[in-house]
Amino acid sequence: MDSEEETLYDDIDSGNESSGDDVDFAMDVESSNPIERTADTDEYPFEVLSTEEIVQHMVDCIKDVNTVVEIPATTTRILLNHFKWDKEKLMERFYDGDQEKLFTEAHVINPFTKTSALIKNRPQIKTNATEECGVCFMALPASMMTGLECGHRFCTSCWGEYLTTKIMEEGVGQTIACAAHACDILVDDANVMRLIKDSKVKLKYQHLITNSFVECNRLLRWCPSPDCNNAIKVQYVESKPVTCKCNHTFCFNCGENWHDPVKCRLLRKWIKKCDDDSETSNWIAANTKECPKCNVTIEKDGGCNHMICKNSCKTEFCWVCLGPWEPHGSSWYNCNRYDEADAKVARDAQEKSRAALQRYLFYCNRYMNHMQSLKFENKLYSSVKEKMEEMQQHNMSWIEVQFLKKAVDILCLCRQTLMYTYVFAYYLQKNNQSVIFEDNQRDLESATECLSEYLERDITSENLADIKQKVQDKYRYCDSRRKVLLEHVHEGYEKDWWDYLE
Amino acid sequence: MAALPRRIIKETQRLMQEPVPGISAVPDETNARYFHVIVTGPEDSPFEGGLFKLELFLPEDYPMSAPKVRFITKIYHPNIDRLGRICLDILKDKWSPALQIRTVLLSIQALLSAPNPDDPLANDVAELWKINESEAIRNAKEWTRRYAMDN
Ligand SMILES: [Zn+2]
Ligand SMILES: [Zn+2]
Ligand SMILES: [Zn+2]
Ligand SMILES: [Zn+2]
Ligand SMILES: [Zn+2]
Ligand SMILES: [Zn+2]
């Protein structure tokens, strides 16, 4: 069985003979994306792995361990998976700890102490002797019975059906236990591949295995882009941008779009808040108020300002001034008591609870706004492409019109940065440095909007030459403001300037 | 309906030939995958003296998936809910195709002897079982008398 580890991967392996590929990839990525990436990524090395390369990488990891530890490769895979593919951790436990305990924890039979009688004796069983399979209850020749090292034997067709159910119905790959009741010994992949005949099931199994290999390996992450099957491999985990071959750039640490200047933790918190609050919070702000007495949220359901709390308190109040209804008399649709003291007190109390929501909506609207604009990125690229062609018909060379594409690239980068500055700002406590940050933010924002206007509206075939200078100046300015803003925030991280409201 | 697998035929035969003490399981006349089950309440348990009716159904992919079992007789037990559904690991993630109707019913009988309020299905019952066991046992005896002894 020891030499069988390749069976799982043979068919997907074959296309991947050229061993130099891996090195080239990183370079490809860099050279096809010269835009600004270098500034962010130069000190963070990563590789893009295709599905085939992921499998190859997994096989290499297993081989690596096996050159040191001499156990069957299939057992090594289960052990590595148990340690989330952390080779060092496995080695440490293997040499320093209680080996017997290690194998038990990982649900494999200790390959050094197993009484391999069961396996070795199999060929000696007389061919006319039969065994009853405990699943299908058929009496079968011993040659049709098989099992793992725990010694629980079932017929090959029941094994096949059992594994198929686990893989196809339950989606289990790495951790399929022996079919016997209460036996937790795991089925290794050599046995899975041997016992399953259907190629569709085999393929699904391979997917499950590679998926869990990537998912539990700290140094790997799937590209989150919807139709992409690549994974990114790094040498150490850090919150840094990585760019897949599909061109998607994301944070290796959290998998979100690259979100400088905000940190992963606050971004996650923000996204969760948005998911919880969105939809409803806008509507609540516009259409409801809280009862001035019991604070229950009340929805305005008609034109009348005379509100009666639906809660048991039954307070009658005015929608406009939040003061008690009584002095309003019969002015059902008009309020002229807005400045009366009792109404003011009620409004102050409400404003306090509402201020938090207003504040959130302020940052949320700006965040969403940039996100929305980024979604039109593709449209903008294609309209700019048209303009570039147009310009070439007006006696400009290909190289002379490239500034337009560059301008869109920078516009998108600025929008993305701005979008995340609002998340950062939402949690930021006011101090001298936060004031500088907000100035930087305002500056970048107005420059970005201006650049956006140039690109969307101001270019016509008549003013090409004039506008070129204007656009170039503006994007250079945007780019430098963006760098200033980011560097300032980074400096703040280093010097501990930022305090958060949490 | 598809032919009955050999496994089910054999298992039914063996169940008839060597019945489990305290348990009867009879296949329905019209559907060989559906069993009428009666479990007698174990001695020294609050269910002693009761006869509990259950239904057991072998799904299409049995034995790859577990049988479906449900109490029909009302029972006061922390791991059995109002609808008679049973919280038992071997009926869920710990199911193995090497288990049988026999082993499942034995496990259910054992569950009557040893209720486990820490893994509850009926929360109110489990709660009482933990904070006031003697009252819970009194309730269980009362339900047994009321629902499991009438004939
Ligand atoms: Zn079998
Ligand atoms: Zn086993
Ligand atoms: Zn990708
Ligand atoms: Zn991140
Ligand atoms: Zn009220
Ligand atoms: Zn009013």
From TrEMBL, chain A:
Its EC number is 2.3.2.31. Keywords: Metal-binding, Repeat, Transferase, Ubl conjugation pathway, Zinc, Zinc-finger. It is an enzyme of class 2 (transferase). Residues 1-27 are annotated as: Disordered. It comes from the Eukaryota. GO terms for molecular function: ubiquitin protein ligase activity; zinc ion binding. The keyword Cytoplasm does not apply. The keyword Repeat applies. Residues 129-339, 133-181 form the RING-type domain. SUPFAM superfamilies: RING/U-box (SSF57850). Belongs to the RBR family. Ariadne subfamily. PANTHER family: RBR FAMILY RING FINGER AND IBR DOMAIN-CONTAINING (PTHR11685). This is RBR-type E3 ubiquitin transferase. It comes from Trichogramma kaykai.
UniProtKB/TrEMBL annotation, chain B:
GO terms for cellular component: UBC13-MMS2 complex. One of its GO terms (biological process) is protein ubiquitination. Coiled coil: none annotated. Residues 3-149 form the UBC core domain. It comes from the Eukaryota. PROSITE patterns: UBC_1, UBC_2. InterPro entries: Ub_conjugating_enzyme, UBC, UBQ-conjugating_AS, UBQ-conjugating_enzyme/RWD. Signal peptide: none annotated. Keywords: ATP-binding, Nucleotide-binding, Transferase, Ubl conjugation pathway. The keyword Hydrolase does not apply. PANTHER family: UBIQUITIN-CONJUGATING ENZYME E2. Belongs to the ubiquitin-conjugating enzyme family. This is UBC core domain-containing protein. It comes from Trichogramma kaykai.
